[in-house]
């Protein structure tokens, strides 16, 4: 029974976070920003004010597919945020520009996360193969290798938290100082950014919980040898 509850938590926590961000975004995407600026205009203004004239602002397809690409030096905004004139769109656009500013300043956690990408990809793709081999063959060495690979992927998710929180903090400072939103709109913009942060917190919490569970299984296997 406890095992079932554990897996329900693993499924329900991320689902709840996704529902929260979607409902919050939907609510504030209907609230017009006082400056009347689109997300694209917001991003462009903040980029230019920070000397990032070389960073492009482009439209990308998908719902909430917004991101910053450090390889191409470009801020990608989903259609609603690129063209829309909402508080939500301004907050999301400013958040992605926050990552561009981090990149310019060589923000330590962002650099560390970039360095972890290859290792994290290997860990997320291969960890369960070794874990399952270890379970079915009772080979603790293979199980441990799987845990180590998973730990690399989990570390990536944990390091993502300060990167995202810092980008959101920068976003709030920028959209206020640049005049994109009024002071009375700060609360609404912050709600959008906080809801988005929940998805990263939920993902990291679930990943850490699963890693700890596997470590406990490994210690149990060791004690049986």
Automatic annotation (TrEMBL):
Give a yes or no for keyword Transmembrane in this entry.
yes
Spans through the membrane:
128-156, 192-218
| Keywords for the protein's UniProt record, in alphabetical order | Membrane, Transmembrane, Transmembrane helix
Transcription as a keyword of this entry, yes or no, is: no
Stated name of the protein = Metal-dependent peptidase
Species of origin:
Bacillus thermotolerans (Quasibacillus thermotolerans)
């Amino acid at each position: 029974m406890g095992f079932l509850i554990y897996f329900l938590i693993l499924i329900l926590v991320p689902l709840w976070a996704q529902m929260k961000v979607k409902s919050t975004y939907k609510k504030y995407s209907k609230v017009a920003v006082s400056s009347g600026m689109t997300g694209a205009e917001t991003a462009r203004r903040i980029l230019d004010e920070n000397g990032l004239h070389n960073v492009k602002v482009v439209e990308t397809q998908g719902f909430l597919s917004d991101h910053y690409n450090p390889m191409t030096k470009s801020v990608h905004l989903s259609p609603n945020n690129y063209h829309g004139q909402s508080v939500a769109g301004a907050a999301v656009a400013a958040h992605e520009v926050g990552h561009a500013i981090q990149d310019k300043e060589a923000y330590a956690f962002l650099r560390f996360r970039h360095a972890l990408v290859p290792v994290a990809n290997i860990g997320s793709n291969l960890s369960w193969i070794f874990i399952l081999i270890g379970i079915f063959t009772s080979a603790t060495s293979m199980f441990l290798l799987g845990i180590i690979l998973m730990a690399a992927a989990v570390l990536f998710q944990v390091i993502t938290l300060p990167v995202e929180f810092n980008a959101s903090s920068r976003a709030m400072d920028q959209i206020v100082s640049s005049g994109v939103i009024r002071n009375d709109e700060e609360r609404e913009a912050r709600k959008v950014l906080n809801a988005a942060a929940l998805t990263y917190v939920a993902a990291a919490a679930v990943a850490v919980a699963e890693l700890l569970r596997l470590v406990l299984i490994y210690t149990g296997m060791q004690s049986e040898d």
